[in-house]
Design goal:
This protein is an alpha/beta fold. Helices cover 36% and strands 15% of the residues. It has 17 helices and 18 strands. The protein binds FE(8)-S(7) cluster and iron/sulfur cluster. Residues 63, 74, 76, 99, 130, 132, 134, 163, 165, 185, 187, 240, 270, 314-317, 325 line the site of FE(8)-S(7) cluster (CLF).
């Protein structure tokens, strides 16, 4: 049954897809936005930098638009347990590490349970706009469950965008079905385009009822990934490519991957850090393969940014994630709870709520642009990073001690740019501060000059200052980018007047484990 409003909208859009994809291909990386002359890069590209048809597709997708991720939520349903390949950064006890950080596992659902869950979440969280299937194995190694789930959801919740994430091995054979179910967005994890590099990442694939190993396995996988990408973009389906950065294995090679996927029409490239703690029991974890540092990751993302749109706000979320990208509300929607929930899918109420969110977002963009105008004549080439404690909505609205992550912005004469996030241990332990956690927070934001917070106590303030990071609480509950630009203007003035000296900060650490809250959740039951 496909005659839904959602499907009709998508079908009418598809008429002009050739032109749209041409426009996507022509939109390369840093575009210069009209008016201010400031650049806006990658997935931070806003309404003024994208063709209107593309903007319509990405404006409320939290992964495809950096701006949207402050306001709109996604959810995953874990309906796909099996996988058809083996990655050296994966332990099958956990969720697919192509879109999830290892160390957490999801509750498996039937398509019917999944559909009920989507309706329950959409009724509770009206800003939830996207449903993704990202595991816990590979969605296309479980095609019947995956497509049944999409079918049910498109009937029950027609305004929700459908999203799929796959390793790509089975992609070419399922393109028509993906198009048939109006899946709006597809992610393919592509870690290499050279089978010799691939053989170091993938020990085997399972293809045509046979297990194939080594370079031949990587060759088949790569061919299917790239062919699948071409077939999707030919049909006007927006594609994102995820790549796991594995230092010494594929880090340099990812520049080549970036070029290969861009030339095949990928809209967005998401280079993610390898997470390889030994306790996850992955091949890379056990052989001591390290992940990249924060600056190594940023340098690679920066070097690819001139080529195409880069995603930098990925949270490597779990296969049953629910909520804004930086939060995890999955514990509110376990199967037991959903089955008892009375749900009322009110499309009009969802639309009305989203219209309010859109207004908030516009206000944020306007505030930023106003502040940006004051930097118009600025010629300094100083760039600094700033960490921000936020609960969402683009506001500095989180206390230092309550932050589970800090968002990182790069500030320069061009304005502010979101460049990543750093997951941290909670400093506040209910009445007292955890000094060990504070050390890890400082290591996680050690490349930043300032940290913006809604509130901070005296002790962490002093320790941050000693570490060379300025705690800033004067912009509590104000818009992040407007405030950060305002602070940066003052910083430049102080440097120019000689009041302070600008210096380059060091590197920072990317946290290797799962969040504490996740570790307290259910034990693994294996695939
Ligand atoms: Fe999910 Fe992936 Fe769709 Fe997003 S996640 S299937 S594209 S709706 Fe997003 Fe999560 Fe990163 Fe994935 S933050 S892991 S990129
Ligand atoms: Fe694991 Fe995902 Fe790789 Fe399959 S595709 S082996 S589930 S990381």
């Amino acid at each position: 049954m496909e005659s839904t409003a959602h499907h009709e909208a998508v079908t009418s859009e598809s008429v002009d897809m050739d032109a749209i994809m041409q426009q996507v291909a022509e939109h390369k990386g840093c575009g210069t936005s009209s008016g201010s002359g400031k650049s806006s890069c990658g997935s931070s590209a806003g309404e003024s930098e994208l063709p209107p048809e593309i903007w319509e597709k990405v404006k409320n997708h939290p992964c495809y638009s950096e701006e949207a991720h402050h306001h709109f939520a996604r959810m995953h349903v874990a309906v796909a347990p099996a996988c058809n390949i083996q990655c050296n950064y994966c332990n099958r006890k956990y969720d697919c590490a192509n879109e999830s950080r290892p160390g957490v596992v999801s509750e498996r659902l039937t398509p019917e349970q999944a559909a009920k869950k989507v309706v329950a979440v959409a009724s509770t969280i009206p800003q939830m706009t996207v449903l993704g299937i990202a595991g816990p194995g590979d969605p296309l190694a479980n095609p019947a469950k995956t497509f049944k789930t999409f079918e049910l959801i498109s009937q029950m919740a027609p305004d929700i965008k459908l999203c799929l994430s796959t390793n790509g091995l089975a992609l070419p054979e399922h393109i028509d079905t993906i198009a048939k179910y109006n899946v709006d967005h597809v992610t393919i994890t592509i870690n290499m385009v050279d089978p010799e590099v691939g053989a170091k990442i993938y020990p085997w694939i399972f293809y045509k009822h046979k297990r194939i190993e080594g370079i031949e396995a990587a060759r088949i996988l790569s061919e299917h990934q790239l062919r699948g990408l071409e077939m999707l973009t030919e049909r006007g389906i927006l594609c994102k490519v995820n790549s796991v950065m594995i230092p010494g294995v594929n880090d340099q090679h990812l520049v080549e991957v970036n070029k290969a996927v861009k030339s095949r029409g990928a809209f967005l490239h998401n280079i993610m850090p390898l997470i390889s703690a030994p306790e996850h029991g992955t091949v890379f974890g056990l052989t001591g393969q390290r992940g990249p540092s924060a600056q190594e990751l940023k340098a690679l993302q920066d070097s690819c940014e001139g080529e195409m749109n880069m995603m930098r706000h990925c949270r490597q979320c779990r296969a049953d994630a629910v909520g804004l990208l930086g939060e995890d509300r999955s514990a509110e929607f376990t199967t037991d709870k959903i089955m008892d929930m009375e749900v009322n899918y009110d499309l009009e109420a969802r639309k009305a709520y989203q219209a309010v969110v859109e207004q908030e977002r516009q206000a944020k963009v306007e505030a930023k642009n106003e502040e940006l105008a004051a930097l118009a004549d600025e010629t300094s080439d100083i760039k600094v990073l700033a960490a921000v404690a936020t609960k969402g909505s683009g506001l500095i609205n989180e206390h230092f001690g309550h932050a589970k992550e800090f968002q990182i912005y790069e500030l320069s004469a061009a304005g502010s740019k979101f460049v990543g996030h750093r997951r941290v241990d909670l400093y506040c332990q209910g009445g007292f501060g955890d000094d060990t956690a504070l050390e890890t927070v400082i290591r996680a934001i050690n490349d930043c000059h300032a940290v913006f917070v809604a509130k901070i106590g005296g002790c962490p303030k002093n320790d941050l200052l000693k570490a060379g990071i300025e705690p800033v609480d004067e912009f509590a509950h104000e818009f992040i980018e407007k405030s950060a630009i305002s602070w940066f203007k003052t910083y430049l003035e102080k440097v120019k007047s000689g009041e302070i000296q600008h210096f380059t900060r060091g590197d920072a650490e990317i946290r290797q484990g799962a969040l504490i809250a996740d570790e307290e959740r259910k034990v693994c039951d294996g695939v």
